[in-house]
Amino acid sequence: MPLRPRLIAFFFFMVLIWANKIGLTQSERDESVDNGKGVTYGEEIIEFWQVGLKIKAIGGTCNGFYATIPIPGDWADQEVKLVDEDFSTHVGRVSYRVMDHGVRQMVVNIPRVPPESEARALVTFEVRTKTVLAPEDPSSLVIAKRLDRAVRPHTNPSPYINSRSSAIRRKVKELVADKETAWEQIKAIYDFVHDDVAVISGSKLSGSEATLRLKKAIGEDKVNLFVAMCRAHGVPCRIVWVRGHFYPEFYLQDDEKIGHWFPCEVIGNTDFGSYSKPRPILQRGDNIKVPEKKERQRYVPEFLQGRKSSGKPQITFVRSKVAPPKEK
Asked: What is the reported pTM?
């Protein structure tokens, strides 16, 4: 890779890291602090992930590509380090940006790919993700009366999550009626979604209201229902997107008014307030504004556009676990 694009890419990545770790306060970054009263962090897993794209020009020249690619990000329970870059000479400018809820993207411009040539823009990250342990004494945790700016969006409806549904509100009221603490109330919601809503096969989303009515849904809609029910009860809640999976996490405050995000697993195992088998976290949130899309997105996918050309582009997006890169 030429020196100038490499320096530009490295500069943008370091600016992204600085903005997330130094330039923002804890509440603005929307993270959980391990102060012994909420979440605590255990052992970590270390994986290496390569992310990017390849474009091969078939039968002629291909021109004017602009791509955005989600990359894993830093949170209190995850640390990400850029360890390798592989940019072909066809690649122009590469930069990084942060969007809603800390979602990060790599932005790639490829001006021209000659016939039968392949352009590639690949980056490799070291991702350290920690296990999350449940609080020792959750009885002192409460539903926050005042929320930080970064947390407030996670109380509102989002695509396929209708927390204002009257049916959902009635069901939540029924479930929490005899529960005293905030933890017990959310656990009652969790037990209902985990135990009483069956998982079915398929890929089409139905949304939180249909899931409650039918009491069966694909896994992603079980998560939608839990998130909607928590929000209907005044508890901030959001979806966490990990490699090959997704799960919800809910927000409570301790007696010092410090907020904590607690994960849970509504599909399969019974982790509640903890996460025992961490996977690299790709995104957090479920209502994200993306400059290239008119509608807000539940999950930010890869995006690519290019100009009409004589060749046919063969496009491959890359997101794969790899071996640790060799020292250069």
From this structure: 0.85
